[in-house]
Amino acid sequence: MRIENLKAKMARENLESFLITDMKNIYYLTGFSGTAGTIFLTKNRNIFMTDSRYSAMAKEIISGFEIIETRDALAQLPEIIAHENLKTVAFEETVDYAFFKQLSTIVRNIEIFSTSNFLMEFRQIKDEDEIRNIRKACEITDKAFLDVLKFIEPGREEIEIANFLDFKMREFGASGTSFDTIVASGKRSSLPHGVASHKVIEFGDTITMDFGCFYEHYASDMTRTIFVGEANPKIAEIYHVVREANQKLIDKAQAGLTYADFDKIPRDVIEQAGFGKYFTHGIGHGVGLDIHEIPYFGQKMTEKLQTNMLVTDEPGIYLPDLGGVRIEDDLLITENGCEVLTQAPKELIVI
Ligand SMILES: [Mn+2]
């Protein structure tokens, strides 16, 4: 079905052939999860190329493709191009320069051109299986958060807390973390993406933890901010503003909401509270096979949310030299609202 949808789009947009090298796109189309593979699609043929390490596995799990075993997929192209009488080859713009140079050298005398996010139109709408996997990834993330609350105490390093979260997520069934776990404490919590450091947790610290995992190739992404011993009153004030912004978006998110409004609804809450200039990043992003994928949101974007998109809601306020708060949930967009897949508590927690 996925491959049929893609080939129909290729026909609509006059792509005679398409070279796919992004491993997430390859997984999406075939279920192949090895580390080396290349897809080449033409009107008449679906070709999957991989080397001898993976060809047996590919033959077993991939249907609807010719499997070619080769250590150099690009070297196979001239013959296919000649056989299919192709005039153009499209490729993904995310390829690296060395690949582009090799492609330009091997594919001569016909036009090559790049496409942007060609498969994402499909990937951004999740099917039942994908939703089930992301739901599970979110459950694992929630459980790790509940456990880390019992682990955090003054004297521990941020890195120890990050390692604990990573270990717990694996223990609960994750295949790994979906990105490097962020633990930013004290003044460091004012760094929106403070990677865990050797800083030691102290009484009175604010701690922002942004973490997530992969379950069956699908990601979760959650942020919670908590306090150790006591909450600094100014940070407690912004905590309530951020939480209100996060909740207001949950209340309003549904299919049909424009990307501009998705950004504006929580941003207005923070601006009206007088902290607009301290909310310095985007409100959210899509989550799926990639931890960050479309949709992204901006103030003038007229596109609309669609049913079964999976997006984050992550307002934050960061007061320089004092500390910051971010609360992030993963939302499944539905026809009449949204479902919050990350269920870890959001009331102000002091441990
Ligand atoms: Mn995020």
UniProtKB/TrEMBL annotation:
**Superkingdom of this entry's organism?**
Bacteria
**PROSITE patterns documented for this protein:** PROLINE_PEPTIDASE
Q: Which residues form a coiled coil?
A: none
Q: Which residues form the Peptidase M24 domain?
A: 133-335
Instruction: Please name one Pfam family that this protein belongs to.
Output: Peptidase_M24
Residue span, Creatinase N-terminal domain:
2-125
| Alphabetically ordered keywords of this record | Hydrolase, Metal-binding
Q: Which SUPFAM superfamilies match?
A: Creatinase/aminopeptidase, Creatinase/prolidase N-terminal domain
Q: Which InterPro entries match?
A: Creatin/AminoP/Spt16_N (IPR029149), Creatinase/aminopeptidase-like (IPR036005), Creatinase_N (IPR000587), Pept_M24 (IPR000994), Peptidase_M24B (IPR050659), Peptidase_M24B_aminopep-P_CS (IPR001131)
The record, for PANTHER family, names:
AMINOPEPTIDASE, AMINOPEPTIDASE YPDF
Question: In which family does this protein belong, per the annotation?
Answer: Belongs to the peptidase M24B family.
- The protein's name: M24 family metallopeptidase
Q: What is the lineage of its organism?
A: Bacteria, Bacillati, Bacillota, Bacilli, Lactobacillales
